């Protein structure tokens, strides 16, 4: 179990850090196209190549982790990728982080440990081939309900002549993208389960292909939400929906189960809860800091400035870091969201 969790952490770290490095590499590059001159420019950019290889390696490691452990364990742990990205950006990219960011990282870390201790090896469960279309029908039905809700709300908003985006739209787009991200992991796992049960090996690439389509569609929905809505709401709903979908679908469609020991069951449940709370804090820490009482904000900022001063005085720098090597806290999550790639 711990090997699979470590693989998941390495995979999600590669995915998130790789995307940031690719984004930083594209600052001096033209928009990606199939022209030979443009492709050679991307290949010759070391930063972009390193990020691309990290992203691909992360995807391969994630598939390896899914082949070894329940998706109800892997999917929540993958939510810690944002925490790893924050640590990387703080020490390597010199990003300034607030106190809530560190609380979110601590919760995500504690949740991962809880999942590791509470999760247990699953015996080979019997999964019918009919579970795949049944899963697709369930998702389609859920999307039909969400889209109907969205249409009714848009119609009512037009009747009231409201032009700005409402929180309901942000929530629905976030939920839809998160459901698709979670289903992508479940379907990938289903391919490995079919293979273990004696089905043709072709089921593995088929399920992985369907999983890729789910992820791509999820990015489309997330981009639609980010285009007109607030990134905090959309990203938070997507992250939480992805974890919940992975856990529920893994248990209902793949026959995964909670631990038999009461202590392990509580530990696993608390691990899931801590990871979800940690992700929510990391996504919305800037907004939450603004809601704190002014004396508390001043106290937290003064402590943060003292720590930064001590850290700077303890290290001798030959020169200031290049501005291109610094990503501000408010834009870090923006770099990891799909809409930043479409510009």
UniProtKB/TrEMBL annotation:
Keyword Magnesium among record annotations: yes
Entries under Gene3D superfamilies matching the protein: 1.10.3730.20
TM ranges: 47-67, 73-93, 100-118, 130-150, 171-190, 202-221, 233-254, 266-292
Residue numbers spanned by region Disordered: 304-324
InterPro entries (alphabetical): EmrE-like, Mg_trans_NIPA
Described function: Acts as a Mg(2+) transporter. Can also transport other divalent cations such as Fe(2+), Sr(2+), Ba(2+), Mn(2+) and Co(2+) but to a much less extent than Mg(2+).
UniProt record similarity statement: Belongs to the NIPA (TC 2.A.7) family.
Name of this protein: Probable magnesium transporter
Upper classification of the organism: Eukaryota, Viridiplantae, Streptophyta, Embryophyta, Tracheophyta
